Amino acid sequence: MKKIFTYTFSILLLSFCGPQLKAQNDSIKSNRILPADTGSKLNMDAIYNRPFLMSDKIPIAIGGYLEANSNYEQTDGASEGLTFQARRLTIFMSSTIAERIHFLSEIEFEDGTKEINIEFAAMDIEFHPLLNLRGGIVMNPIGAFNQNHDGPKWDFIDRPISATTLIPSTWSNVGFGMFGKYYVNRWTLGYEAYFTNGLNSNIISNSENRTSFAATKLNPNRFEDNPPGSPVFTGKIAIRNRKIGEMGISYLTGVYNQWKVESQVVDTRRNASIFAIDFNTSLFKNKFHITGEWVRCMVDVPETYTQAYGKSQSGAYTDFIYTFLQRKIGVWKNAKFQIGTRLEYVDYNEGKFKETGTKIYDQLWSIMPSLAFRPTGSTVLRLNYRYMETRDLLGNPAAHTGAIQCGFSTYF
Questions:
Q1: Domains of the chain (ranges plus CATH)?
Q2: Angle CA(353)–CA(359)–CA(365) in degrees, nearest 5?
Q3: Which terminus of the chain has fewer CB atoms gathered within 10 Å of its CB, N or C?
Q4: Distance (Å, rounded) from C-alpha 169 to C-alpha 242?
Q5: CA pair distance 368, 18, nearest whole angstrom
Q6: How do residues 142-174 score in pLDDT, each as one tens digit?
Q7: Which residues have a Cβ under 8 Å from the Cβ of 81 and sit 6 or more positions away?
Q8: DSSP secondary-structure letter at 304?
Q9: Number of Cα atoms under 13 Å in the Cβ half of residue 66
Q10: C-alpha to C-alpha distance for 173 and 197, rounded to whole angstroms
């Protein structure tokens, strides 16, 4: 931990003290974007499409963002009161090592320093817009939020439930693969394909007592060990039209259990897979934005496990954001006020009880209105209210949760 803090502080000090610092709002000035790369940005470009600080004297570009908020939550009349939360501090650094060779890292400090994660640390080698190699700690491109998750980009304090409890939030693993983009008139086509570590028996052996892909992220050894002995494949295809929007289809699959020990077969190979579809669009001259994602998880659960562990799960969220005021406010020339709503649904067990044939519940739905003020494009102040209903495995009367949150997120 001390080494990480020392390294981060040294880079920050050099960057802020160096002469001729300059901010960029879109992407770093390098050969990262090839001359032919003139199409629309996709979610896959989010790791580089951030504001960076650069100095002519230092070969590293640096940036980051901070999230903090207050939270008051009550479930069926019970509450722990008002709390203040330092959600995350994220540092990202990028460097052009040589022409068409680039490195980017992203380190996240969650809940103060309760968790320190390397979310991205990879080298890109570019051969052609359609063929680029990437290796290191890569972000599995399953869904859109996993790629495009920076706090300042969102009007909602909480991350989507389906993108954090079904898909592991900001899920990164060690591996290698390729990516590319192609343009035809108003159309942009992109793809990513990686082989990585990642899956483990935490999917069905965890403290949640249910099937949980998110629990695989808790394995601290996934950056150096792969118990199943075979890699996870993650692939995504995305297509964007400048007037219609972007749609992505992604798939992740692999063996999650250690079925061999020293070449001896000790268990059946058990697969786990995630399929996701995402979509986003902007209407009425970029005043109205719609973002959505649907995900389905499929797991080969042993018959010896209880029916609480579902073989299939699904969930979705949709965000509606409308800019109702955009003008100069005080010293801010292009400030915005936005209202929005997030709709969410998650079913953690889509099965039926064998004995009765009745539905297994273990599901929730949520609605979250929002009000956001953006003095600049890199900073957002946000007010959210959540109403959520949760039903247990047996479908007993739902628990009702209300929560009010107020906070901010900003790039720096």
A1: 2-411 (2.40.160.10)
A2: 135
A3: N
A4: 28
A5: 43
A6: 999 999 999 999 999 999 999 999 999 888 999
A7: 72
A8: T
A9: 8
A10: 6
